[in-house]
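Here is one chain, start to finish.
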Amino acid sequence: MLELIGVVFLALLPTFLAAEKRSKRDLVLETLVEPDMIRMGDFGELLAVKFYTETPMGEKFLIVAYREVSAEDGFVLTAYLARRPSTRRETVWRR
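Its structure:
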């Protein structure tokens, strides 16, 4: 997974994540480092998916779209909360 992350566009995260005790950055990094699954995006990006039982909106999945530049580097495209991950995407890896 990613150890070095280039520019992270945390401003794109939903603002209601701010109510979490952990920062938005921490949630994104946790999802990248310890995802429940990784899925393929539409344009070659990868989607790290992690389920969170406690958000201000109830139980949600945090989905982080990212692109790997090399085995040691990559960058986050965006991140968002969803009720469930898309079922049409190919699963690359599952915990």
